[in-house]
Amino acid sequence: MLRGKVIIKQQECEGKSIFTGVESCMTQGFKRMFGSEAEAIAFTALVLILETYPDNADYIQSFVYQLEDMEIRFWCINDEDHITYLLPSEY
Fold first, then answer.
1. What is the pLDDT of residues 39-85, one digit of tens each?
2. Which of 28, 73, 75, 90 is deepest in the core (most CB within 10 A)?
3. With contact defined as beta carbons under 8 Å apart, do 64 and 72 qualify?
4. 64 - beta bridge partners?
5. Are 65 and 41 in contact (CB under 8 A)?
6. C-alpha span between 48 and 25 (Å, rounded)
7. Architecture of domain 5-90
């Protein structure tokens, strides 16, 4: 169970990216930032993409993880053959 809440931000434009059936990975910065919650945060983000944009997802999705009075931004980028979870500073 997550200690905080993952929130998907509104995408800037529509796309045709498919976020299922491809491998996913996380950057070292993402893993360090979220620690033991990294996999659960990534999974929750993927579910939110599929629920929010089932047919029109852009290749880049933006999120905020809210924990108490802190907000941590992160992205999920679809590179067609894999998706990557990363911090904006790692782009």
1. 999 999 999 999 999 999 999 999 999 999 999 999 999 999 999 99
2. 75
3. yes
4. 7, 73
5. yes
6. 17
7. Roll (3.10)
